[in-house]
Every structure is written in C-alpha cells, then in structure tokens.
Amino acid sequence: MNGQTISSLLTPNQISLLESQDFENRPPGPILEDFDVLLEFIGNEGIPVTPTHLLQLNQLHTLNSRLSQPVLLGSKRPIQKSYPPINGLYLVLRSTGLVTIDNGKKPWLRLDPAAMESWRSLNRAERYFELLKAWWGRSSGETIGELTGDGPDRCLSKLREILKELHHAQGVLTIAQPYESEMLKFHPGLHNLALLELFGFVRIRLLGPGISKTWSPSEIRLTDWGDAILGSCAELYFKKPMSGDGLPEEVKGYDLGMILDPLEYFEYWGRLVRPWIRGWQRELEIPDAEFQGGTHVFKVSLGKDCWRRVALLGEHDFALFANTILNAFDFDHDHLHQFSYKDPFGRTQKIDHQYMDYSDDPFDCDVNIGDILMHKGMTIGFLFDFGDSWRFEIVVEEIDADPSIETPAIIEQHGEAPEQYPQADWF
What we know:
The chain is an alpha+beta fold. The protein has 2 domains: 6-276, no CATH class; 295-426, MM3350-like (Structural Genomics Hypothetical 15.5 Kd Protein In mrcA-pckA Intergenic Region, Chain A). 31% of the residues lie in helices and 18% in strands. The chain is built from 12 helices and 13 strands. It has helices at residues 12-20, 31-42, 57-66, 84-96, 113-121, 124-138, 155-168, 190-198, 224-236, 256-259, 262-273, 318-328, and strands spanning 47-48, 99-103, 107-111, 172-174, 202-206, 217-222, 295-301, 307-313, 337-342, 348-352, 379-384, 390-401, 409-414. It has a 7-stranded antiparallel β-sheet with strand order 10-9-11-12-7-8-13, with helices on one face. It has a 3-stranded antiparallel β-sheet with strand order 1-3-2. A 3-stranded antiparallel β-sheet has the order 4-6-5. β11 (379-384) and β12 (390-401) form a beta hairpin. The longest helix has 15 residues, at 124-138. It is globular, with a radius of gyration of 24 Å. The model has no long low-confidence stretch (mean pLDDT 91).
C-alpha cells in the first residue's frame, strides 16, 4: 500500500474504530451540521463581505445563533475572530473551492454552482473528508486575516504540537485562567482549536461568561477518534518514502512531511486510511479554471495620484506585463520584480522574475495572464527593485474587453511618474 502500511500508523482498536464509524447517523463531531448552516446562510443569492473578504459584523450574531454550539460573548462589538467556530468554518469554506468572491462595487461571496452540484452528490463520509482535506491540505491563516510570517503556513504542524501536549497530559489539557490560554491564540490558533472540536477530535470545555468575555477553553480533552485520525496523520509526517511510493529516489531519505506539500501529504495519508472508512470513495470535483483570452484592461497605480491604464492579451505572459508597466512609468528594466495575487482559496500566490535565484514560485515567462483566474476588481501586487521597493497596485478593470489588440497598449496616463533614481540618491 504505497510502501507504508496502516498497521504502522494505527492500532487494531483504532482500525476497528475507523471501520465502525457511522457518518450518516453518528458523525464524530458537528462539522457537517454547522457547515450546512453556513451554506444555507449564504444561500443562492450569496452575501456581501468586507473589503478583506470576511463576514460582515451584522451577519455574525445571526450565524452564531444557528450553530450547534453558539458562542456566548461579553464583547459589545465582536468581530469574526471573536467567534472561533465561525472563523474556522469560514476558513474551511474558502479552502474547499465551493465559493467565489465577486469584486464589484462591493465584494460578494457566492456559491459556485458547478462545485455545489458535486458537493450535493457526496455522501456524509465523503463530505467530512473533503472538509478535512480543505483544512489540512489547502487552508492558510491569511485567508481569515491571520499573520502567517514568511514561512509556509502548515496547519498540520501546528496541530502536531497540540497533539503532543495532549499526549503528554494523558489526553486532557487544563487551563485555569484566561491568561493561560493566550498562547492558544497563536499555537494552534483558536480557529484551529474550534475546528478540532467540530471534527470530533477533541471536546472543549469553556470558561464561563462570568470569568471570561471571550471564547476561552478551560479544558481540552482528546477523543479516541481524534487520537486515531489526527495521530495517524501526524505520525506519517516522520515516515520515509519507500519503494512503490512513486516519489523520486533523491528524496527517499527525507521525511514525508518535508517533501510533500500539504495537499499531497493529505492525499498520501488518505490513500492509506480510506479502505477503513465506510463510504469514503468519491471526491469533490472543483471545476478547472478556463483560460481567459482576449483583451485585459488594468489600472496600474504608483501612489495615490499617479496611474496608468494598460491593455494586454490573455495570451501575453507576465514578463511582457512587467515590461509594459515599467515602460508606462518610464522606468528602466534593470532590477528583479515579483507579482503577487490571491488565489480562489484566499492564499497569496507569487510569480517571480525569470532570473530570480532559489525561487519555488513560477517564473513570469512561464505564466500567461489568461492562466490566472481573474475577475473585475481583483487586485494584483507588482514589486519592482527589491532594494528600493517600488510597489505598484494593479486593479483588473475588464476581461475580454473590446476592442481587441495585438500588442500591449498604454491607453491612458494620469499624473507624473516619480523619478526612478532621484538625484539626491547619488550623494
């Protein structure tokens, strides 16, 4: 079984637990129930969201009241992160591919019809593990406004730490005072803790409203289900690839958690566990983004009062896009650059200059504009010259616009561009 065996990850009792789990009638936690509430809350018409693509303040109380375990807060103006279960559910939702965000005058969160059709075809076991895949395989804290630093935001690495603490405490962590739970905001994060309970991996007892005005755990208790599922996935992290895994020979001496990205890692683990899960056969089908050809119009700004409107084809690559921007502002092309944008899952993706050393990101000459799923109102960052850090903001204004063009065009200019090398810099 791909070089690894389930017996190396689970005890016979844990395997029996997996085999007997009845997702249709006795799911291990309320994640499916509460996720259905969130989907129903969004509905066919969708809902408006904030400029940072979070739920609006006036939506939180209503949504919270409909969940299986509403949060009681003492705060007068709670924000989304004040409700860790909502914050966690929203993170998972954005990471599934079931929703899109339209940026018109106001950002609008909508259910994707094709993805939802696939979702409705899944049974409850398949839905459970699709949500788990979204959380462990795709999610990033930046989607819900969390600072993630410069390194990879790997959810499972944070959960391994809390699992280790739970094992060290014989399965029960006790937090007596609110200040003692402060570190939980960072590791693993309160939204991750809430999701651990929603998936049935832990049971959480909260400090009473008279002791704490926030969602503050007083006890975290590991469940048998959590020990089996989370424990097996965490233990696999330190296994070495073996023959039959389909991985290159040069990585055979490294831990699986180091050489696989989170989604690949989840799918590797899933292939081992799936035979013991009743009903887990199909997966959610997320429609592939279609190539967007034709004329694209962008407003490129350098500061508040200096901008250029440019047009390129979807068939043009990002290297030509960079050259067009620099030409529009009369900048020399003598430094490296980097594009950045948010993908449909709310994660930052980067496209690097083709001469960038040690980059894991795609190069600008290898990515066409039409390869990126763009929408009107979408913003793209363009950083030029990593020393002087010229930061341009790009806003997508039109896609497949008229008239058609053959070569990049600068169609409007506003404001005088700053000097790339002010004279004072030479003294």
